[in-house]
């Protein structure tokens, strides 16, 4: 059956890496017989240009009616006029995640052998690193009220309910059951009330998964251990803000944000796939962006939304084969352009 995909290229390098990933998907689909239709919509800064808001109503409606969503990246450079919009690109992204109830964000961090020499971390430390960060995505300090930005004082509210913690914890434990059966729950329970509730609730959920080992870790020491002993981690379960920060930190292990995809899910609704990085205004429009993060986001979509495992494996293998040959962009110390990497991946797929 044809799968209908809503495509949100967004801003900065978003459209460049999206074009690359769609070309790869189309090349792979040609020989597999799978059918896809694509519907492009304005989102982020592009949404503001088209309709005055980061998430135009028409874009949301299309997202609610499709089989999966692919998102490039959103956001302008510091000082962009979009920061003054009635709804900024970032607010548009948060609104989309909330509207679709995308409470679980899966961020796999693996270091394939091809990247071992390119990692700034010593090979003996990083070899075999394969973890999944399960980030709660629609609560916590990102969404809590009251919040206020005054000229002399500002505040945000971090709030979590037991129900919100339980549902994300169940996802993390279920994922751990399919892998190394180890969950590291990351919090700041020595200080924060929300973290104390988080820890207690995660312990309750853990009782349903007796085969899984649960370890609690404070976020500050976790940040240190991610680079010091990355192979110790299997599944990291954490709240919204900590997950945002730790996943960018973990990108240092493979050497760049440019190879990291993510998947966001709800309870049975449409899922969204996007790189964990942003719109990289510093390299936008120059054919320099690493398209791997977007291609691997497509791989996650094929596996997690469509169960098209063969097609997913083919694309993933082609992406890694190109990396193995040293055809990599500047973020990985190479000289290849976005288009050269894309053409090389398509060639591997027989396109
Ligand atoms: P960023 O992730 O855009 O960039 C951080 C660094 O990583 C930059 O040096 C950039 O060049 C590099 N980088 C990121 N992706 C790359 C790729 N695919 N290939 C090569 N290099 C890559 O973070 P930032 O600069 O702090 O934020 C820029 C904008 O992106 C801001 O407006 C921010 O709000 C937005 N943002 C959006 C998302 C999203 O769309 N999900 C995520 C993070 C940041
Ligand atoms: C991410 C981004 C977003 C977040 C921003 C752009 C709102 O950093 O997807 O990691 O903080 O969740
Ligand atoms: Mn982030």
UniProtKB/TrEMBL annotation:
Pfam families: Iso_dh. It catalyses: (2R,3S)-3-isopropylmalate + NAD(+) = 4-methyl-2-oxopentanoate + CO2 + NADH. NAD(+) binds at residues 278-290. Binds 1 Mg(2+) or Mn(2+) ion per subunit. Its EC number is 1.1.1.85. Catalyzes the oxidation of 3-carboxy-2-hydroxy-4-methylpentanoate (3-isopropylmalate) to 3-carboxy-4-methyl-2-oxopentanoate. The product decarboxylates to 4-methyl-2 oxopentanoate. This is 3-isopropylmalate dehydrogenase. It comes from Enterococcus diestrammenae. The gene is leuB.
């Amino acid at each position: 059956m044809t799968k209908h995909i809503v495509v949100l290229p967004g801003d900065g390098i978003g459209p460049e890496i999206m074009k690359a990933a769609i070309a790869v998907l189309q090349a792979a689909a040609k020989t597999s017989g799978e059918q896809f239709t694509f519907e492009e919509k304005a989102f982020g800064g592009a949404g503001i240009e088209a309709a005055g808001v980061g998430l135009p109503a028409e874009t949301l409606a299309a997202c609610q009616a499709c089989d999966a969503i692919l998102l490039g990246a959103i956001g302008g450079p510091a000082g962009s006029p979009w920061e003054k919009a009635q709804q900024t690109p970032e607010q548009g992204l948060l609104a989309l995640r909330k509207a679709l109830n995308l409470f679980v964000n899966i961020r796999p961090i693996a270091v394939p052998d091809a990247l071992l020499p390119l990692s700034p971390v010593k090979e003996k430390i990083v070899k075999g690193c394969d973890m999944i960060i399960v980030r709660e995505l629609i609560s916590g300090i990102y969404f809590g009220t009251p919040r206020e930005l005054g000229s002399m004082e500002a505040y945000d509210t971090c709030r979590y309910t037991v129900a919100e913690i339980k549902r994300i914890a169940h996802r993390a434990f279920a994922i751990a059951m399919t892998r190394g059966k180890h969950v590291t729950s990351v919090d700041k329970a020595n200080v924060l009330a929300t973290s104390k509730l988080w820890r207690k609730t995660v312990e309750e959920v853990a009782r349903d998964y007796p085969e899984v080992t649960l370890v609690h870790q404070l976020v500050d020491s976790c940040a240190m251990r991610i680079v010091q002993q990355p192979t110790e981690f299997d599944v990291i379960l954490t709240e919204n803000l900590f997950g945002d920060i730790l996943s960018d930190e973990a990108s240092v292990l493979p050497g760049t944000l440019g190879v990291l995809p993510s998947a966001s899910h709800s309870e049975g609704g449409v899922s969204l796939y996007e790189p964990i990085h942003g719109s990289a205004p510093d390299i936008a429009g120059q054919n320099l962006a690493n398209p791997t993060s977007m291609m691997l986001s497509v791989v996650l979509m094929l596996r997690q939304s469509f169960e098209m495992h063969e097609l997913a494996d083919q694309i993933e293998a082609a992406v890694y084969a190109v990396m193995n040959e040293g055809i990599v962009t500047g973020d990985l110390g190479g000289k290849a352009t976005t288009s050269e990497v894309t053409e090389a991946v398509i060639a591997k797929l027989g396109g």
